[in-house]
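Q: What would this complex look like in 3D?
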Amino acid sequence: MRTRLNDDPRGLKPAARVIRSLPLAGSIGGQSPPYHFVASWLRGYVAGVARSLAVAALIVAALMLAIGAARASAGGEDFTVIKAGRVITVSGEEFSPGIIVLEGDKISAVGKGIEYPPSAKVIDAVGETVMPGFILPRSRHGLDDYSRSGIQGDQIAASEVYLLRMDFSDLLEAGYTTVALIPKGSDIPGSASAFRTGGADDSRKLADAAYLQVVPEWNGKGKENLRAAFKKAKEEIEKADKARKEWEEKQKAKKEKPRDEKPKEGEEKKDEKKEDKKEGKKSSADGDEAGATAREAGAAEQPTAKAEPIKFDEPKEGKFAPPAIDPKYQPLVDLIQKKDGARMMVQLTKAADLLHFDDAMTPYEGVAYSLYLATAMQTDYNYVVKQLGERKARVVLRPWIHRLPQTAFRYNFAADLVNHGCEISVIPHDGTRDEYMRLRERLAELVRSGLARKAAIESLTINPARVLGLEKKLGGIEKGKDADLIFLNGDPLDPQAKVMRVMILGKFVEVKRQKL
Amino acid sequence: MKASHEATKPRSHKAGQRRAAQRPASRTHPNPERKRRAVNAPSLFVGPAKALAGTLALCWFLVCPTMLLAEEPPKKDEPAQPAAASEKEDDSKEKEEKEKKKEPPKDRYFAITHTTVHTITNGDLYGATILTKNGKVIEIGGAIALPEGTETLDASGFHVYPGFIAASGGNVLGSDPPDDTTDVFSLNMTIALAGGITTAVAGNSAANLTYGSVDEMIVKRDLFKSLRYTTDNPDGRRKIRADLEKVRQYLRDVQAHEEKKKTDPEAKEPDKEWIKGDFETYLKLLRHDAVAVVDANSAHELLEVCDLAKRFDIRAVVRGATEGWTVAPEMARAGLSAIITPRRTTDRDERYNRPNGESIENAAILYKHGVPLAFVPSITTITLWGLAGRDLLHLNMEAAFAVRGGLPQDAALRAITIDAARVLGIESRVGSIEVGKDANFAIFDGDPLHYMSLVRWTVVGGRVAYDKQKESLYSHIRPSGDRDAPPPDDYWPRRLGGGL
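A: Here is my prediction, written as structure tokens for the whole assembly.
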């Protein structure tokens, strides 16, 4: 009895504890005297019946829930209406006041004075500004200090992410609803993975491989390695093409001349079996599909990255099996072949790096890429801003007012990029809460000194969505997009304004605020 | 060293003038661009325009066939088409437009006009013009007809020299290979250009300082094979000698085998499996396919190198050669060339009863004995404290100091232009102003060996890479080269770099 008392100061018996966890007991709650009264009463009279009572209550609750769900599904409608003081749609015009109609977790309509079903749940946000949640296109938020170098195209950042352990509250507080976590390291350390900062766990992951992270060491072997990596990828493609050609020729020859060399075929079959064992599922799938699955499955499989020897013999079905492409180079192969969704983000450190990057990529036209312009206070990108503008570059940068090289002259680099036709996305200066919270203020500074307001808003929403290839899903308030919204008590570019509420997939998520 | 000959013989300026006199009065010549435009004109005017262009072109071809050799072969002249064929022409027009899109970029012409040209290898030309195409010199002469669209730089009153060559590059270029790593917008590069340098060595490669571009930077890779042949490394030296001897024996065996083969076709070839790594280097050296570079300063070290070069008949460049003046005849006989610093100071060692230490006459004495020279400053980088005049920015002052020691003025200039190029083995690309060479020029407002002279423009690969008036390094000193002009009042705040 003593030990039990130590366990629970109130010294309740197990049965009573079950009761306490029920809603009825919860409402009495705490250590208040009535609770003790009830407890003793229960202990005295109903302890034996408690278990059966609890079970009954649970059954009733389940029944109620089932009925409710049935009713909802009978209507087929799960509408929510947000009556906002102001709606910044990003994708279209602004409404003030405006109404956003959500159907489930998607936006179904937005406008001024539009009709909505009377059964819809209404959210009153008359005093608030509603806009799409911010998207952070590259971050190491909450990840360990783990880096890898070399060509590691098969790696993804998601393999480092344990959602149970991740704490996105700082990002949520700053208004971020999506974050792309990047693998750390030089050359090609892997692909960035995009996550929602809140919501149900199964809906958190947006993309395993949003883009390939490319971080050449421009002062050293970076350009050489980049060139070599793409060359190797091209060789892989050529290898597959050659194998296909030879297979086709073989097929032709077979049709013309039926089999006459039986012993050789037996050998081939043995080889096949061996290879099947090695490659597992992949050898059966078609080359492209194999690549895609490798990219999606990514971390789960952790494929052993060894180039298989070229095998030209076909499986029993008579279907062509291309030689396995080195999974480390698969994303590069996809980039060269301009596959849907294949894109990379290249990190530059200075203006000259752009020229070196162009030089290295000359043989590979049309590869989709965005640029991360790592900057210091003094930057010399002003020399290449025209070239960036001409190609309408998709640029990620930190919002600074820079200084021109070797001078104290102020230079609004972001504004200059936009004026030249680039598409900019901004990221906080570092991974601290302070910088997350200051980002809108820094952006406002840029706007005050010449950056277009529209571009500033886009640099937090639709532009980073494009960088991640999620522009059809996120980054604006329009029909069909996910209802990832933030509610501010003022203009987003007003440093005083705060993110009051955050909605992810149509549901408000808890925003833990740090007390100041 | 390589026999001193130029890869491409320039035409003499007199020839250029003669040719210019024969040319039509018009200063623009009917280049292919113009012809193409005539074809795209409205159909009514096509005939006459084309005919005109055709005849002009024909005249041109007849008058100046030599010039055309350097140009693209002309398209066949079509006869003037009748106006009735206009419908067909619409189609062809579209096709032509499509073809036009695929065409490689236009030729880039750049000319420096009305200036004094110091070719270094072929004397000086006054009131001359240099015409460059796509970064190469194509014509030098008195009155050259410039193609349409030529970017011109009127440098009247200025002196055009070939861009200087820094036989050691320091922080001007990136690490080797420079075309992968160089920051082509760096301040160091601008400063080097302000010193008239257009070619520098990074690691074991020579590259042009192509400001703002990474195209066609490399002049030559694999300049030297470095040998460590210093006196504090006797074992290493012994090994080098033994290995060289081994490879030489192999070469003799190969020769003997070839002789033997004539009589006995099944003669066994000498084993060559072991010729890898260092041995391969030695093989190249012995076959004169490569040049060795050795660091040597004191007299006894230099004599060791002389001995090595003579014994194995290899070509070698000595870096340092502070005491070269004491062993100049031996160095010349061994066929060495030297990369030296005329202002190097080394105290005389009183233990030796022979001339030693540095001498202001080092360069002059070596030159007198026929040792090819290249000059580098004592600090082979761009440094802030180098503003005192010992860093790469003052390559010309380094040469000027050698003149103080008795070196002829033209030899001093050659030591930072064509002779430096020869020492590096890049004389076919850079080092003098000749037809076919890279369009690298340093345009001074006076004698480059005079302390008051400043670079007004530097041209690299037919592009102005440095303009004194646009950079704030020296823009406040004697604007437009006028030595008597007072400095401007408002040169502060200074701003470097072009850009915004």
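A: To summarize the key features: Chain A touches chain B at residues 218-224, 350-352, 355-356, 359, 380, 382-383, 404-409, 411, 416 (CB under 8 Å). Chain A has 15 helices and 18 strands.
Q: Very helpful, thank you.
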